[in-house]
Amino acid sequence: MKSPVPTPCFQAFFPPFVIKKPPLNPINTYGAVTPCERIRGESMNSTVQDMTSQFAAAESNRKQHDWLDVQSVTGTGMSLPIAGLGGRTFAFLIDYHIRVILALAWLIPLSLLFTKGFENNMFNHKDYGIYFILLAFVPPQLIYFLYHPVLEILQKGRTPGKRMAGVRIVTAEGITPTAGALLVRNLFRIVDSLPVFYMLGLSVAFFNKRHLRIGDIAAKTLLVYEADKKQRDLELSLTLGELPAEEAETLHELLDRWKQLDRKLRIQLACDFLEKIDRPVPEFSKPNRAADRILHDTLKALIAPTAAR
């Protein structure tokens, strides 16, 4: 009977193990690959992780807001987060301070001018008081009452304060209100401000689901967040008419979030999208900044021809 083969001491305590080689990348098995395929193979894991985290963030964000569900002209639904009292108040305070600054920018030089003129006898006592009251009272009142309606009409439902707060005025259909609706909304601002500090308007907004003040109810408007950058006018969907509805929404979403995505991920998504719609994919050797810029310009060119009409 043969004696067993002696086993080295370290193997008696540490059993042998086998180093398994990773399987070959199936993409490289077939020879030459395109840059898009190479990038797709390298970033698959990061893509899954990114999509998972974005989905979780979106679900968490949706629970924090009431939402306005609308239907775009392309037939694809969109959801816009409705602004609460916090976003509404923050925007108003910013606009209020801007109006105060504009009024002071008028009143301070005016006071200096009239003071200097009175000292030098440029104004007689009879006319001095009338001119000063008119010039000191009328322009600040115009600034106060015209600030919101004029800027909201010119900037499509926005003011500087609303831009900084990330909110915007829209209709129940999710589009920009007409000039008439914005004027009605601001006309009822006088009622909302009663008795002081917008107590009536804030009270009404607090006790309804969409946080509408009296002016919003009268004008059939509401305030939605643009901070999530999901917001877009439904008119923009018209510029994507050459593509089917699903592809148009995908393209618009990709361009909206381009700077938020990792460079390798957005290059991969752009390549996949161009292949899906049977458009030529630009050639590049590495997913560098130049390739990123070329793909971004290529996607924007899909919108430019129809937007220019």
Question: How would you describe this structure to a colleague?
Answer:
The protein has helices at 9-13, 26-29, 35-42, 44-64, 85-119, 125-154, 160-165, 179-187, 189-192, 199-206, 214-219, 245-256, 263-276, 289-301, 304-307, and strands spanning 67-71, 77-81, 167-171, 221-225. It has 309 residues and is mostly helical. Among the domains are: 85-225, no CATH class; 241-307, no CATH class. The longest helix has 35 residues, at 85-119. Mean pLDDT is 76; it is low at 7-15, 17-31, 227-231, 233-241 and 305-309.
| Percentage of β-strand residues | 5-15%
The number of helical elements comes to 15
Number of strands: 4
Order of helices and strands: HHHHEEHHHEHHHHEHHHH
Q: Uncertain spans, ≥5 residues at pLDDT below 50?
A: 7-15, 17-31, 227-231, 233-241, 305-309
User: Termini distance?
Assistant: 95 Å
Largest β-sheet summary: 2 strands, antiparallel
Topology:
Elements: H1 9-13, H2 26-29, H3 35-42, H4 44-64, E1 67-71, E2 77-81, H5 85-119, H6 125-154, H7 160-165, E3 167-171, H8 179-187, H9 189-192, H10 199-206, H11 214-219, E4 221-225, H12 245-256, H13 263-276, H14 289-301, H15 304-307
Briefly summarize what is shown.
By secondary structure, the chain is mostly helical. It is built from 15 helices and 4 strands.
Record keyword descriptors for this entry:
disordered C terminus, 309 residues, mainly alpha, 4 strands, two-stranded antiparallel ribbon
